[in-house]
Amino acid sequence: MPNYKENPAKGIPIGIIGPDALVKKIMKVIQNFPSFYPIPQVYGVEDEAPGLAEAVAAEVEVLLLSGPMPYRRVREETHLNVPIHYVPLTDTGLFRALYRLKNRHGLMNPFQLSIDTLSKPMVENAFKEIEETSVTSVYFDGSPYASREELIRFHTDHYENSHGHAALTAEESVSIALTDLGIPNEWVVPTDQNITVALERALLSTETRKSKESQIVVGMVNVDNFGKSVQQHSSEHEVQKFKLDIHRTLLDYVESLDGYLTHMGGDEYLFFTTRGIFERETGGYKSIPLARNANKRLGLTLSMGIGFGRSANEAGTHARNALRKSKEA
After folding, report:
1. Helices H, strands E: what count in the chain?
2. 3-state DSSP assignment of residue 82
3. Considering only CA atoms, which of 207, 296, 193, 294 is closest in space to residue 243?
């Protein structure tokens, strides 16, 4: 197997471990994280999770497990030197599962549910939000990292001995077992938002990410058609006010980056900040409101080039190249 850590151009290597359906779902969401290079590992049953984690640990900076059960197995049965995370569940996944449970199994109100993994306060708050008052729930009160067998036994006992009507489980293998036993159930699948939160936490825990936090960011901003915009002002006083408005707009933006701005003369500006701050303020490079504000306030369009680097020279070179491509576009 190639050592992905030796090829940083591919991104930060992350091991994705879980059942096929969830790994595919995570792989779809991770496309929004260009910093990551995912290495998926699919298992049939949770027993395989520790072995898969050990097999891929040397090639990754962080591991992401699909849920609390495989996470528990990996933590207890391995001794790995990489951060380990799992995808949490929230009420959004619960709403979807409850809706499917009612429609697929034709449950009529009122009915009883046995629920694992999801906490009682979270479920009750979710039911209160949707004004669901006809559901009676029993919660698994054992270990938060209970085994598959313990969860199956809990749901089976409730169904047979307490006249339960259906089950909600956070584990696919438990859902499959309950289906084989003829017990109505739904698998509470993490939503894209749950996966996004887990990936964000995983990213913040990587050594590469930590080392990049303090990397220098150089931004070069060019005011498009600056000369033409200046000519639209009839007096030198108005021209000077126009230039000051441009400088103030850029200064306000750079202040939000806790950065430093300097005017290079004419239509070009230069600013410095750090990568960690820039990533947070842009939402992971998704939004730079500066150009929109300049257009709205001053009727200008801007071209911008952003460069990262281990030195100011490297970051500046990248920024200049980026600005050239921005102008060409």
Report:
1. 14, 12
2. coil
3. 294
How far apart, in whole angstroms, are the C-alpha atoms of residue 255 and residue 250? Answer: 9
Rounded Cα–Cα distance for residues 19 and 22 (Å): 6
Tell the burial category of 242 from Cβ atoms under 10 Å away from its Cβ (0-12, 13-18, 19+).
middle
Instruction: Identify which has the larger pLDDT, 44 or 104.
Output: 44
Q: What pTM was estimated for this model as a whole?
A: 0.59
Q: Are strands 268-274 and 216-223 parallel, antiparallel or unpaired?
A: antiparallel
Q: Are 17 and 70 in contact (CB under 8 A)?
A: yes
Q: Are 267 and 220 in contact (CB under 8 A)?
A: no
CA distance 178 to 155: 8
Q: Is the peptide bond before 19 cis (omega within 30 degrees of 0)?
A: no
Q: What digits encode the pLDDT tens for the residues 175-209?
A: 999 999 999 999 888 889 999 999 988 988 887 76
Please name the amino acid found at residue 320.
R
- Which pLDDT belongs to residue 60? 94
From the list 284, 128, 166, 274, the residue with the least C-alpha distance to 214 is 274
In single-letter form, the type of residue at position 220 comes to M
- Alpha-helical runs (H) found in 85-191: 91-105, 120-129, 148-161, 172-180
Of 33, 34, 30, 70, whose CA–CA distance to 52 is shortest? 70
